[in-house]
């Protein structure tokens, strides 16, 4: 295990919650001052629909100038969409963001399958659309997206996520069987979604190891429900994720990439942190430093 003088050098933070309303340089400066080594940007700060190529590249350059690598760009479009024109736009946006990221040396782009059940207007699979048809729409869109990513040299890091068609190990297997040999197919491993459905995280990591390009740090408490009211993503360490088991599994498969906090403890954020994202990343770093005690020495190198 890690000694008292050792620390993990690849902690990152997804610039979410109210960081999305801050200027990118202020976000980066705050995270760097708190001890982070990386930032994960979303469309709030890296959006090819409203930013020029120079502006997009400037976000990456600025991050590095402040001492942060960009671990990934998060796009996460809902690919279960009945409007063909809207779906085409979502695929194009994902590819354009990936191309802009690659131009600045960032290859990993975080994506979902959909439906994004926390977003207004999502398709209610099962009630409004047969599951088989939903998978057909998504798989066709996913293939087009992957082909576009491959053309620009990016990797589409799928995050199996609650509510989506790919939400646990077994549903992710549908995409593995279809796209496992595609050069752009990858995985963003978020343990909270696997822990939510009681998947064996040790086993899942070993099975997904060839594809894992990025890791999220997020905990979960509760059980999955149709409307998502039976679970929360609490502060790190308060939930079901066995961090020692996860870190040992990642070490065993040779993962040496970034691990990025995705802060979604919304009630704590509102009631205690008063919607201050700087406090959210600060308290997260305290928790991350505590997690280093559970890390095997190999992972710390």
How is the topology of this model organized?
Layout lengths: L10 E4 L9 H10 L4 E5 L10 H13 L3 E6 L9 H20 L4 E4 L19 H22 L2 E4 L10 H11 L5 E5 L1 H6 L4 H8 L3 E6 L3 E2 L8 E2 L10 H10 L6 E3 L4 H6 L5 H15 L5 H4 L1
Parallel strand pairs: 1-2, 1-10, 2-3, 3-4, 4-5, 5-6, 6-7, 7-10
Antiparallel strand pairs: 8-9
Helix pairs in contact: 3-4, 7-8
For the structure shown, list the relevant keywords.
42% helix, eight-stranded parallel beta barrel, globular, isomerase activity, Xyl_isomerase-like_sf, two-stranded antiparallel ribbon, 11 helices, disordered N terminus, TIM Barrel, isomerase, alpha/beta
Distance between the termini: 12 Å
Overall SS class: alpha/beta
Shape: globular
What value does the Rg take, in angstroms?
A: 18 Å
User: What fold name goes in the CATH topology slot?
Assistant: TIM Barrel
Major β-sheet annotation: 8 strands, parallel, barrel
* Largest beta sheet: strand ordering: 1-2-3-4-5-6-7-10
Low-confidence stretches: 1-5
Q: What is the averaged pLDDT score?
A: 95
Helix content: 40-55%
The tally of beta strands, per DSSP, is 10
Number of domain units: 1
Q: Which sequence of SSEs, written as H and E, runs from N to C?
A: EHEHEHEHEHEHHEEEHEHHH
Query: Which oligomerization state do the chains in this entry correspond to?
Result: single chain
């Amino acid at each position: 295990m890690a000694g008292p003088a050792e620390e993990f050098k690849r902690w990152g933070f997804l610039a979410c919650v109210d960081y999305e309303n801050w200027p990118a340089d202020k976000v980066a400066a705050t995270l760097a001052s708190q001890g982070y080594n990386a930032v994960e940007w979303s469309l709030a700060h890296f959006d090819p629909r409203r930013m020029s190529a120079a502006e997009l590249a400037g976000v990456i350059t600025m991050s590095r100038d402040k001492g942060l690598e960009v671990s990934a760009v998060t796009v996460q479009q809902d690919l279960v969409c009945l409007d063909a024109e809207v779906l085409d736009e979502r695929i194009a946006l994902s590819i354009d963001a990936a191309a802009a990221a690659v131009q600045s040396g960032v290859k990993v782009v975080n994506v979902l399958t959909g439906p994004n059940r926390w977003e207004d207007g999502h398709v209610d699979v099962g009630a409004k659309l047969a599951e088989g048809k939903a998978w057909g729409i998504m798989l066709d869109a996913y293939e087009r997206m992957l082909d576009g990513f491959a053309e620009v040299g990016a990797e589409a890091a799928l995050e199996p996520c609650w509510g989506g068609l790919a939400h646990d190990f077994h549903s992710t297997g549908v995409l593995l069987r279809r796209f496992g040999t595609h050069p752009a197919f990858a995985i963003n491993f978020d343990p909270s979604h696997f822990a939510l459905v009681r998947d064996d995280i040790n086993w899942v990591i070993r099975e997904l190891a060839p594809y894992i390009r990025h890791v999220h740090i997020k905990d979960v408490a509760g059980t999955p429900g149709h409307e998502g009211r039976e679970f929360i993503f609490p502060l790190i360490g308060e939930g079901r994720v066995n961090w020692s088991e996860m870190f040992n599994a990642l070490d065993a498969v040779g993962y040496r990439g970034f691990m990025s906090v995705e802060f979604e403890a919304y009630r704590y954020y509102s009631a205690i942190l008063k919607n201050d994202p700087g406090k959210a990343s600060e308290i997260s770093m305290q928790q991350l430093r505590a997690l280093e005690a559970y890390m095997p020495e190999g992972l710390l190198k």
